[in-house]
Design a protein that fits this description.
38% helix; Nucleotidyltransferase, domain 5; 18% strand; binds zinc ion; 5-stranded mixed β-sheet; 6-stranded mixed β-sheet; 2 domains; disordered N terminus
Length: 333
Amino acid sequence: MIPAEGVGTPSLDSMLKNKLPALGIDLGGTKLSAAVVQDFKVISEPRTVPTPHGSENIVSAIVELIQAFQKDHVLAGAGIATAGVVDPDTGNILGSTGNLPGWSGTPLKTLIESRTMLPIRVDNDANAAAYGDALAMGMADKECVIGVTLGTGIGTGIIINGKVFRGSHFAAAEGGHIRVNLGNKRFCTCGLFDCWEEYGSGRGLVATTKELLPGVTSAQSELANHVEFLTTRMITAAADNGDIIAQKGLNIWHEHLAVGIASLEHFMDPECFIISGGLSSVVNFDLLRELVIDRCMPRYAENVKIFHSQLGIYAGIIGAAHEVLTHITKQTA
Ligand SMILES: [Zn+2]
């Protein structure tokens, strides 16, 4: 039975919208992906296109993706997870990374809503992933949960009592740019030296493994002939084949990951860390926990909890979809 509308009862509009799925969109420097999300599952075939150059072309590509999905699905709204600094209330992009030049200043929510007539919510990609992961794992009521997205770089998001912690200028939780070395050894895409993501990300794994290769022959490691074009996939495949250099590179990479996580453990005292992103599938979670515990003071060591995301590579898409659904529910309740 549908209750009569009034104070404390949800409107018919909100009840209907709550049942509808939302589109989740993940905008990265190289690709733009989207899928329809219901509960914590992707219920459509995901679509991925290369990220176009320039703000106007990206906006057009997002509109085309939304319209393509609207042919087969009635959507409550669309959530967009993007690299960069975002004001989620206005949906404006306040700052962009080198991966999306010219993206800063784009009034994304306004532009997409005016062309699709669909409610839109925009957030930073790591925030969206952390939000989706915290909800999916039933951690929304916890004091603090930290999401760590491992890919080409490292994204982090902090969820406090079920809400994304944004800081005073919407730019909080750039954990990937915590400095982990004082030697000006690795230059980061952000313009600073020795950020955590230059060590603990996919780029970091490649850089670390390359440092092990000078003087190594192809008889000693299958990676010796690929120094120039080394990829994370080559390294993990070689490690699976028993390649000692690749395995050493991966072990050092786990240590680098642990350094950043241990710092965040001391700083935020979270309930847990949830690790997502493409590179999370190569993490040895038992090893990582051990390495983090080794780097923590005793009081912190006993509380270290690190989980693999249940949403995997769709954490950003699912989190963004839930952000728009949560916002619609709040507005119409
Ligand atoms: Zn950096």
